Structures are given as structure tokens and as C-alpha cells.
Amino acid sequence: MKFKNVWRNLSLSTKLYFIVSIMLLSVLANLLLLNFAVRMLAASRAGVAAEGIWLGAHKDAVVALKNFIRSGDPQFYRSFEKIMEVPLGAQQALVAFEKVPRDLVGVQNGLIQAKIHPYDIENLIQLTEALDYGFYVKKSFSLWKEGTQVGSELFALGQKIYRTRVTRSFTPMEREVLSVKIDGLNQRLNQLGKSFSDTLGDGAR
Hints:
- The chain has seven helices and no strands.
- By secondary structure, it is mainly alpha-helical.
- The radius of gyration is 26 Å and the shape is rod-shaped.
């Protein structure tokens, strides 16, 4: 009753001002929500694009490493190291992100090394900064972290293979064992990559 009485006693101009203010606030809130949704959609798209780049690099690295095991040609190992700079850049970005306070310059430099487009770098940083906003972002970040760990295992295995191969050839049995190990790591990377993309896709819907 009190509100009705107060409202009834307001002038027409005050009532109009009040109604317009409410409408403007509603429009502003919707615009802010839309802006956040667009930013997260762009960040998700950037994440999927980055995953494609990193996964492709791992596949190329696996081919180069297997060729080195077979031939012993140092050119294949140099190719392996060069290709692995891409996923190792992603790992560098992750390490910089986890620093306290967060090292955004390090994140950016790592993503540049990982061959990410400058526009997508900004979106990926926005994605990492949105960790507190929901389950899908946290899960995708966890998958990214696990993927860099498996990539590090592949790189360490490659270094170990190099130290042995420059001194002698591998036996057929050794080549088979190494091939199984490499394929196992590659399979894990493929599974993590698919889960990463699926998670971002689910979060964007």
C-alpha cells in the first residue's frame, strides 16, 4: 500500500524517468551478459584451434622420431626437436599461468612459441582468466595441463633415444618396444586432445 501511495503521488516525469532507468539497466545487464558470452565463445574457439595445432605438432614429432630410430639420421632428430618447440611453448605458457602472481607476459610468449595467432592469444588468456566461472573451463584447463605433461614425456623419451642412437643402432626388438611406447604416448595425446575439444564445445553450448 505504501508503495502504491508513493507511486500515485509521483509526477508523470518522475514516473517516466524511473521506468526508463529500469529499462536502461536491464539493457545494460543484457549487453554485459552478451559480451561475456561472446568472449567465452571466442575463447573456446581459440582453444579448439590451439589444440589442433598442438596435436598436429605431436603427430609430426612422432613421425620424425620414428624415422630417427630407423635411420639414425640426425636431421630427423633435429626436426623432432624443432617440431616439439610448439607443444613445449604451450607448456611454458602453462607454467607462467600458474605462477603467483600470474605471469601474463610469460603466458603470451609461450603461446607465441606454440604458433598461436595473436588474436587467439588474447582469447586464450581470457579463457584461463575465467577459471572460476565454471566446470567446463576448469576441466579443459586440467586436460591442457595433462596434455603438456604427456608431451614432456614424449620429448624426454626422444632425448633418451637420441643419446642411445648416436652410439649404436637399435635391435629390431628395441625398435618394436620404442615404437609401442611412442604410439602409447601419441594415443594418450589424441584422447586428451579430443576430450579438450569436446569439453570446450560443451561449455560453449
